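Input/output pair, single chain:
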Amino acid sequence: LPPKTTSFRRWAGRLAEHVAAGGFEDELPYWLAEARGEPRALPEDFPRGANTGADGRSVSARLEEEETRRLLQEVPRAYRTQINDVLLAALARTLGRWAGEERVLVDVEGHGREEILEGIDLSRTVGWFTTLYPVLLDLRGHPGEAEALTAVKEQLRAVPNRGIGHGALRWLSPRAEVREALAALPRARVRFEYLGQFDGSAGEEGFFALAPEPAGPNVDPRTERAHLLAVTGAVLGGRLEVTWQYSAGVHRRETVEALAHAYAAELRALIDHCTSDDAGGYTPSDFPLVDIDPSTLALLEAQLLAEEGD
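Output:
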C-alpha cells in the first residue's frame, strides 16, 4: 500500500491550532449577518410532538434512469452548476411553497475534507470529517426555474470554505462571545445531504456492494432528533433516490410523501428547463477574478448577444 496520509487525530489538532490562532475569524460577518434572520417555522401536523429516534420514519422518491442521466450530465452545462445547486434549489422551492415562505434555512452536510491547512493530506485517511453548516436559501424575487437555480448557486458559492469554519468557530473558538453568538443563531429544522454516486464503488461491477440487511439504529431511540426533516440523496442503480426522514410524532406520513413527490416534480421541472433550447447564462461566481454584480453581468450578456445577432 502507498504511505499513509494525515491521521484524523493530527488533522483535529491542526484544526484546533488554526482556530486558536484566529483562523476563520474573517468569516464571522457572514455567519452573523442580520440578513440571515430566522425565517418562518415549518408547518407541523402535531405541534410540539415527540421528535425522538424511536419516532423516526422515512419515505423515498426516485427519478428514472434517463432523468438522472440528464440531471448529472446535461443540467450543469446550462448555468455551470454543481449537483448541490440543483438539489437545493428544488428543495427551497418545495419547502417554500409548503411553508409559504421564500426563505428556507437548511443545514447542509458536506464531506469536510477541505484543503485549508498546509501540509495536510486526507486523500487516504479513514474518518468522519463531516461538516454541517446553515445555509439560508433565499428565493425572494426569483420565481422561475432559472432565477431560483442561479440564485441558489450564488448563495452556495458565497459560503466561505464550504462551511467548515462555522463548526470550527462554534465549538473551538477560544473566545466565548464567538461561541455564544453562533450558538444563539436560529436553528435549521431541515438537514440536507447528497451522498454522491454509488454505482461505481458499490454496485454489481464494483469491488464492494451494499449490505442488504438493515444496519440498525445509529443512536439511542430515546435521543432527540436534531432536525424535523432530514433529506438525503444518492444515485444507486443509475437512479437518484431521495429519502425524507421525519418523526411520526410531528408529521403524518402522507404529508412527507407529498413533499417527497413535490420535490421530485421540482427536480424534473429544473431538468426540463436546463435542457431546453432557451436555457443558459452566466452568474457573477463564474468570474471570480472580477467584481461584478448580476445586473451589470446581465447587461453585458445582452450586449454580446445583440452583437452576435448583428
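The chain has a mean pLDDT of 91. The beta strands are 56-62, 103-110, 131-138, 190-197, 229-236, 239-247.
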